[in-house]
Amino acid sequence: MVYCTTCGTQIKAGSFCANCGTAAAPAPSSAPAFQQAAPTNTLAIVALVTSLVGIHLAGIICGHIALNQIKSSGESGRGMALAGLIIGYVGVGAVILFCVFWVAAIASISGGIASA
Ligand SMILES: [Zn+2]
């Protein structure tokens, strides 16, 4: 229960004063709950989505920026930023391995032609 800021009548938190109609202030006990419901960092979502759709470099960059922002702002979304980073790094690693494989394959083929 909280008290009406206008007339002092005891009213239910989140409702309106029955006496004068003033909106009740949020209950003081809801402060820790508000911290739990911190907004999710936008760049963390961007990092995860870009990594998932295959834009891995953008995911890695956004993930790093998001982690820094979350560290200083206390926003939620750290897990999403980390997931975006990890998926991004795995994706980039896979692309590099793929390129190395093909360069090696092409080199061995051209080497075979040259020696033939
Ligand atoms: Zn009132």
How does this model look, in words?
The chain has 116 residues and is mostly helical. It has two domains: 1-37, no CATH class; 39-116. Helix content is 63%, strand content 3%. The chain contains four helices and two strands, in the order E-E-H-H-H-H. It has a two-stranded antiparallel ribbon. Helix 2 (42-52) packs antiparallel against helix 3, helix 2 packs parallel to helix 4 and helix 3 runs antiparallel to helix 4. The longest helix has 38 residues, at 78-115. It is rod-shaped. It starts with a strand and ends with a helix. The mean pLDDT is 88. Zinc ion binds next to loops.
Topology of this structure?
Elements: E1 2-3, E2 10-11, H1 31-36, H2 42-52, H3 56-73, H4 78-115
Helix pairs in contact: 2-3, 2-4, 3-4
The structure holds zinc ion.
The site of zinc ion (ZN) has 8 residues, from loops.
Biggest sheet, spatial arrangement of strands: 1-2
Low-confidence residue ranges: none
Major sheet characteristics:
2 strands, antiparallel
Mean pLDDT: 88
- By DSSP, the count of extended strands is 2
| Ligands | zinc ion
Count of folded domains: 2
> Any idea what the radius of gyration is?
27 Å
Q: Which percent range describes the beta-strand content? A: under 5%
Shape category = rod-shaped
Question: What is the tally of helical segments?
Answer: 4
Roughly how much helix do the residues carry, as a percent range?
A: 55-70%
**CA distance, first residue to last residue:** 90 Å
What series of H and E elements makes up the topology? EEHHHH
| Structural class by secondary-structure content | mainly alpha
